[in-house]
Amino acid sequence: MRPEALKGHLDGMLLAALEPGPRHGYAIMEALRAGSSGQFDLPTGTIYPALRRLERAGLVAGTWSEVGGRRRRVYELTPAGRHMLDTERGSWRQFSAAVTAMLEPAPLPVTS
Amino acid sequence: MTGGPGGQLVEDYLAEVGARLPAPARERAGILAELRSGLLDAVDAYRDARLSGPDAADEAHAAAAAADDAAAADAAAAIEEFGDPGLIAAAFGPGLALGQARRVALTLLVTGPLVGLLWATAATASHMGSRQAPPWQWVGALPGSLMVFPLAAAIAIAVWTALFTVAATGRATRWLPDRPRLAPGTAAVAGFGAAGADVALFVLLASELAVAPGRLAAVPAAAAALASAIRLFLAGRAACRCLTTRAALAGH
Fold first, then answer.
1. Residue B181 CA to chain centroid, in angstroms?
2. Which end of chain B, N or C, is more open, meaning fewer C-beta atoms within 10 Å of its C-beta?
3. Residue B88 and residue A3: Cα distance in Å, rounded?
4. What digits encode the pLDDT tens for the residues A47-71?
5. Is residue A106 part of a domain?
6. Which of A6, A14, A23, A26 to substitute to test the interface with B, most B CBs within 10 Å?
7. By the CB < 8 Å criterion, does A43 face chain B?
8. Is B121 exposed, middle or buried (0-12, 13-18, 19+ CB in 10 A)?
9. Is residue A111 part of a domain?
């Protein structure tokens, strides 16, 4: 899947990747890949600016910590981030239902 | 992995990204530290995959024979996964622009009252404006008094655009449309507004010097003028830099 196709949805997916618990940047990328069965294969470096944007908006909180002998910046959802994730989910369900209704072939009319 | 050919590849890549990041040194160091951590995780993931793959035994044997080559190959794969340095640096651009605009606006909001206080002190010490009449009726104050209105306008513009910039670059970004060029633009207006206020203050001072030089309290007036001169230079430069940043974000 091309990165442009994710435009507008990346923030929601990053929030979803953090829903199970705190993760560092590379673990978030791996979660995106695993969760999408490899469909979302962005350049890994591009998720770090996105995480910083979410942090500035108060949707995630980042802290430096020592994990596995390496200094990492670990992110976790804030209460505002959880609320935003719920909102994003609701919007996506509405949107995807509408698009599916339009794109799926209409059932053939029943003739007797 | 911290050294060897693989480590050198990682450091070269980070240096290339860092050279394209328009950020203050501290912020750049933080970004690069995080990228380095992620890159080393990626290198580890490639190494683990190589060592645990179906041909792991052969690979391990080959890797032992050419450990540096294997480490370099892992690093190269991780770097390719991370993306082109220009792409990564550009992706940080909008966020860095917001940070720059916020710093400029906050600096103006903090220093503005200090500069104003110095001018108020100079005016009080010089008995300027103590007369019970509007500025346009001050005896001997023309044409300087005419600058009071542009001064008030410049201060109002600087304050409101700086406040807007601070509001638009913080938590509010979660609700605002993604327009990264807006904040550098408003910060530039705030900077030019502050510089305009300083110019107006200098015109007022010059008119006062021309009309009634003996009435000015030299030390407070000189201190206020010095503060305004410094701010005029810094605010003008910051505003120009914000405009440059805004222009660089033309594709966003």
1. 13
2. C
3. 13
4. 999 999 999 999 999 999 887 778 8
5. no
6. A26
7. yes
8. middle
9. no
Task: Tell me if the bond preceding B143 is cis, omega within 30° of 0.
Answer: yes
Rounded to whole angstroms, the Cα distance separating B146 from B137 reads 10
| Contacts with A71 from chain B: Cβ below 8 Å | 33, 37
**Alpha carbon distance A54, A32 (integer Å):** 16
Q: Record the tokens describing residue B19, joined without a space.
A: 């050279």
**CATH for A87:** 1.10.10.10
Cβ-Cβ contacts under 8 Å between A and B: the total is: 83
Structure tokens given for B2: 């911290």
Q: Say what percent of chain A tops pLDDT 70.
A: 92
| Share of residues in chain B with pLDDT > 90 (%) | 49
- Within 8 A of B88 by CB-CB distance, chain A residues are 43, 45-46, 48-49
Q: Is residue A26 part of a domain?
A: yes
Report the predicted TM-score, pTM, of the whole model to 2 decimal places. Answer: 0.80
Tally of structural domains, chain A: 1
Question: Please, what sign has the CA dihedral across residues B12, B14, B19, B20?
Answer: positive
Of A58-67, B158-167, B198-207, which has the strongest mean pLDDT?
Answer: B158-167
Q: Find chain A residues with C-beta within 8 A of B82's C-beta.
A: 43-45
Residues of B in contact with A44 (CB under 8 A): 38, 42, 81-83
The token pair at B207 is 């008119």
Q: β-strand A60-67 against A23-24: which pairing, if any?
A: unpaired
Average pLDDT over residues B80-91: 91
Domain ranges in chain B are: 4-83, 93-248
Least confident of A33-42, B7-16, B21-30, B155-164: A33-42
Q: What is the greatest pairwise CA distance in chain B?
A: 97
**Cβ(B193)–Cβ(B155) under 8 Å?**
yes
What domain range includes position A75? 3-91
Mean pLDDT of the region A27-40? 87
**Average confidence (pLDDT) over B158-178:** 89
Residue A72, chain B, CB below 8 Å: the answer is yes
Instruction: Name the pairing type of β-strands A70-77 and A60-67.
Output: antiparallel
φ, ψ dihedrals at A74, nearest 5° = -105, 135
Q: Is residue A86 situated within a structural domain? A: yes
